[in-house]
Amino acid sequence: MINGERIWIRLKELSEIGKTDDGGVTRYSYTDLEAAANEQVRTYMEEAGLTTGYDSVGNLYGIKKGTKEDTLLIGSHVDSVPNGGNFDGPLGVLAGIEVLESLQEQGKELTHTVKVMAFKDEEGSRFGLGMIGSRAVAGILTAEQLQKTDADGVSIYEAMKQQGYDPNAFGEAKLENIKAYLELHIEQGKILESANIAAGIVSGIAGPCLVTYETNR
Ligand SMILES: [Zn+2]
To answer: What CA–CA distances, in Å, run from 182 to 76, 145, 216?
Structure first.
């Protein structure tokens, strides 16, 4: 079993960072607010006994080594849309940490290595690109994409530098040995809620791509 109360407390703590008057959160990528949310999550990772760090584009990670290098990746994001919900993103990151913390408390050893990640800029709210961190992890982020700018004309390249990352080193964020990826996400419709079902496993997922993001702006 996991500790549901612990996740709940952490979700509430995280929702204080970038809190809006409506009770939601606004945390754009490569801002001090997103960095603060990441640092808060990092303290949870350390409480869970994970080895933590940031990769070259600023993805936060926590690792629990198994006897194999082959890795299960669990993750989501802590950036948000304007006045976004408190669960969209954080739940997926905190759930990964909770799984590892519970296993540790139960004295369980891992066969596979597990890495929990908070990906940088999933939402695309600031630069109109989105999935910057996961693109880098997948090895498909390009130097050209880093030239996209926010409403103030600041490019992703510049924003990365402002936050202390080296935008020229984005290629180093690519991950090998990932055997599976898992993400718990809040339901964004009301199908499960209306049917009073606690959780569902998706058989397909929306695939936002650059074209749709660019026509939306
Ligand atoms: Zn999300």
So the answer is: 9, 26, 28
